Amino acid sequence: MPADTPGTVTLRSVREDDLPLLERFLTDPEACGPFQWYGWRDPHRFRRRWAENGLLAEDGGQLMVTTGTERHGFVAWRKITVSATSYHWNIGIQLLPDSCGRGIGTRAQLLLARYLFAHTPVVRIEADTEADNIAEQRALEKAGFRRDGVLRSIVFRDGRWRDGVLYSLLRGESPAG
Questions:
Q1: Which of 56, 152, 164, 173 has the fewest CB atoms below 10 angstroms from its CB?
Q2: What CATH code is carried by the domain that includes residue 129?
Q3: What is the C-alpha separation between 146 and 139, in angstroms, rounded?
């Protein structure tokens, strides 16, 4: 997904020199922001998966979010199997705190949704976030996702269970921008 200008948000495959940034999301609570720190995790999991498949597999993947040469974080997707004959994607995003509030997340999620609709036969892409993460809810809505509802006590973070909000975008609905 080539950039038009240095400030254009693009998605690209993960390179080996991106791995330290990805590992930082597993080892540095400050890099995660207020809604993504779930405690210490295996700092080498991205490196192992990258060596195995470049973080691109049939059941999901990760792409770097960039503007020009600046790396902001990543988008990810995973297959949710609903029945023997159907599945959809669940997407997510992780940006460095300095990259938040600039429209980068909205654009990256829109680009990922367009990519998945263009290259896979799914009819549904969903995303979820904590109920208190108002900025991410706005970003999803700006990207064309619709709020499906509240998922009560869906995620355990920082010593307590928290509600989430589920969003979806269906094939044929117009993503934003």
A1: 152
A2: 3.40.630.30
A3: 11
- Domain span including residue 122: 9-170
The mean pLDDT of 47-76, rounded to a whole number, is 96
- Rounded-to-integer distance, Cα 49 and Cα 93, Å: 18
Q: Quick check: is 43 in a domain?
A: yes
pLDDT reported for residue 3:
43
When pLDDT is averaged across residues 74-94 and rounded to a whole number, the result is 96
Mean pLDDT within 3-22: 85
* Separation between Cα atoms, residue 71 and residue 154, nearest integer Å: 30
Report the C-alpha dihedral over residues 160, 134, 23, 46, rounded to 10 degrees. 90
In a domain, 107, yes or no: yes
Residue 85: inside a domain: yes
Residue 111: its H or E element: helix 104-119
Are 164 and 129 spatial neighbours (Cβ–Cβ below 8 Å)?
A: yes
Tally of CB atoms within 10 A around 172: 7
SS3 100: coil
One-letter amino acid for residue 26 of the chain: L
**Structural domain includes residue 1:** no
